[in-house]
Specification:
Blueprint (H helix, E strand, L loop, with lengths): L1 H4 L3 E2 L20 H25 L3 E8 L5 H8 L8 E5 L5 H4 L5 H5 L7 E5 L8 H4 L20 H20 L2 E9 L2 H13 L9 H7 L2 H15 L6 E5 L3 H19 L8 H16 L2
Amino acid sequence: MKKELEQFLARPGKKVSLAHFPTSYGGEKDKEEGVKELEEIKTALSSFQETLYAADSRSVLILFQAMDAAGKDSAIQHVMSGLNPQGCQVYSFKTPTSEEYDHDFLWRHYKALPERGRIGIHNRSHYENVLVCKVHPEYILNEKIPGYTQVKKIDKDFWQRRYESIRNFEKHLTDNGTVIVKIFLHVSKEEQKQRFLDRINDPAKNWKFSSGDIKERALWKDYMKAYEEAIEATSTDAAPWYILPADKKWYSRLAISHILAETFKKMDLKFPVLAKAEADQLDLIKQQLLEQK
């Protein structure tokens, strides 16, 4: 599946048009095969996580971005369910608090980074600052950035500098041992509509629906343009974007699991090897335990 996934990579330095990326895809598998394969890969991911934790030298940061109802929450739930919670942390970023607005836009995201040996999962991320904020530039005024007191002053140069800040932020992380996996779940407008209707029609899912979702849906073209520009500006060799088809949830989950498995393999982590003195000490303790009654 490694080669299959390459078609979903946003190539660094290349123009990004979401229209050229499918929203519905299943490869040569059917849903039953995909679900079974996902369960098998989750076992491997659990083993990789144990090595990551034991090596305590690298960390993994997984970023999920998508339109509403694209399946971020369920993807995290299904793909990550085999991981040890002690070595994994999930953050879901909402509207910034007053304290967060009193710092630069990356501050709250930096605070949520995973420690060495751990996996961090960000449900929405620092990219909201060039996505929802680009569609709603009035939100930028809440940051009280000197010189930006009116929406009309938030120009193209402003966004280019923000993209640069993000690239520098991610380069700093990768230079210091964090592997970044960036995933955009690419759902079609038609599928989103159906999922909204499912949430409305099912009382058990009503809580998932917000009237604000419809207002944002009306800005679909603006969001697609914002995603294209953000992905194009920030997909790098060290931290590329995957634009995964999300109309079939089973496939997007399977694709994510393969991406993570391949990421861990490339990290080539090993369990720590004890120094000879420590190994000898263990042998001595083992002998003492065996001799005890």
